Amino acid sequence: MEFIDYYKALEIDKNATADDIKKAYRKLARKLHPDVNPNDKEAQKKFQLINEANEVLSDPEKRKKYDQYGKDWQHAEQFEQQRQQQQRQQRQREPRQEHYSSEDFSEGDFSSFFESMFGDAESRQRTTKFRGQDFHAELHLQLTDVLKTHQQTLSVNGKNIRITIPAGIENGQVIKLKGYGAPGVNGGPAGDLYITFQIEDHPKFRRVGNDLYTDATIDLYTAMLGGEAVIETLEGKVKMKVKPETQPGTKVRLKGKGVPVYKQEGQRGDLYVTYDVKLPTNLTEKQKALFTELSQTK
To answer: Is 185 in contact with 130 (CB distance < 8 Å)?
Structure first.
């Protein structure tokens, strides 16, 4: 496996603090984000690389292993176990060496003797199977993208992977694609691919779980006398009846107009609409007189 310098990828040195790593990642993520470079494959590769680098260097334990073992950092525990086992075996065998001397062996016997005692370390290292490195990627979606189950193609480490995104996926949710990481070493299993979903904020709707919240403006006359209001939803406009004497800040519910429930076919959240009453401006003299007359009836 080719060595990847995560420090170089984030444009920092090995003495960088956790805060330095966070700042460097955010700066490069804004610059290399796929939404900013939609047709730049090189920028997309670099974006995936800095995500991978941040995943490792922002974790103190992973960073320690990476600094010590480089490209083989994910196998650090296996290396340590193997080294400790060899040391234990060597200590157990040391007393036996006191019963041998060079006079007991011919020159050709030494190699076979030590090989039988300690084994061929190089051969063992070649035949030890190691699991491949996991990959991490981010997939950015619009809020409207979570309304229906659909497919998208991701480019990960130079390969195109077509995935199905279930309706109702949550912001920050992570899914695992088994075997889509780096290939294993010496015939070991491949690593996995972890995809983190980032749902962009919507200018008109706020999501809380499977429910949506929005505001709608109605005029004073509709609020006082009742009538109809046209309400925007994520899937188009609908008409709602407005009760007479509706107060500013009144909240109404549109059942089933929220976000689909993740992997629960046919179930959806609701849309909550808060009314804002718009007061009339540029009144005519007649309108002013009517409001004056109305105010005197209190």
So the answer is: yes
